[in-house]
Amino acid sequence: MAHLLNPLATTSQIYHKSSFSSLPKDLQDTIFITSQCLTQAAGQLLELPQSVTAQANVILARYWLVDSPMANEFSDTSAAALYLVAKMGPQPRSARDISNVYAYLLSESSLFLRTPESPENDPRSYYVPEADYHAVQTRILAIEARILYTLSFDTHVSLPHPLAVTYLQTLDFLAQPKSIISLRTIQYLNAALLSPQMLYLTHQPHALATAAIYNAARDVGAKMPECEWWEVFDVDREELGFLVVGMRSVENYLRKIKEDMPDLSVGMPTRKLIDVELQRRGVGGGHDTAEVDEVQQLMDTMDSR
């Protein structure tokens, strides 16, 4: 049964991340949510199974629990996590494919985190020259190695999606077509990947699956038994309540980011934009990125020669 469990974040890790980070909480949430959305979008364009993309989301969250998001460009870290997970699966993607997809998503021709109006498609805006590709490849490989080192090479991720499907097959009390409830359950599980509460790092897959089923059943108006049926799946009331609220709050997080920080919610934010926002608030920025930027500039210069 060990393969159904995940290594969870410790209390000290969560406390350290929330108490000693140089970034305000709202900026941390913005970086996390947009980067996870970027990973999902890249996975779709690369035609990767959702299971692979979801594992990359979890690996990215685990890495940022320990290391600062400002250590590297957010899109590069997302690309490295997706490249790492895809490489370990049956459908690996080349660094060139990763580079091309992320170049498109980060360009102004992409609809990623932008208004539904179709922008003018300018292939020049996402064309990746050979020199730029080698620079991107170098960054991805370096971050991939950093992720593996930070996670002690433990890349095991057990997803709740298969468990949720199994649980639904055992539940006959829902009085609704299981296809509808199954779809809604999977939607909740996918949305939970974006939660800045990092639900996948603090709760085991069986609890996530149970909470998603509970939410889905409520949404479609399915008849629920009066007994505490969730205990059959080894989930107590307190944990279920926390996860139910956490999964339902993801949409509110996204809406709040768009309302409070419109400049950072159009397209993918960069470290430079975050530094500008920190300076605007009088917090100061760049102290986490100055050394990394100097090294990166040197690497890019060498690659372009």
TrEMBL record:
Q: Which InterPro entries match?
A: Cyclin-like_sf (IPR036915), Cyclin/Ssn8 (IPR043198)
Q: Name one GO biological process term.
A: regulation of transcription by RNA polymerase II
> Which superkingdom?
Eukaryota
Annotated protein name in UniProt? Cyclin
Query: What is the annotated signal peptide range for this record?
Result: none
Q: Which organism is it from?
A: Fusarium denticulatum
Task: Extract the SUPFAM superfamilies matched here.
Answer: Cyclin-like
Gene Ontology molecular function terms on file: cyclin-dependent protein serine/threonine kinase regulator activity
Cited Gene3D superfamilies: Cyclin-like
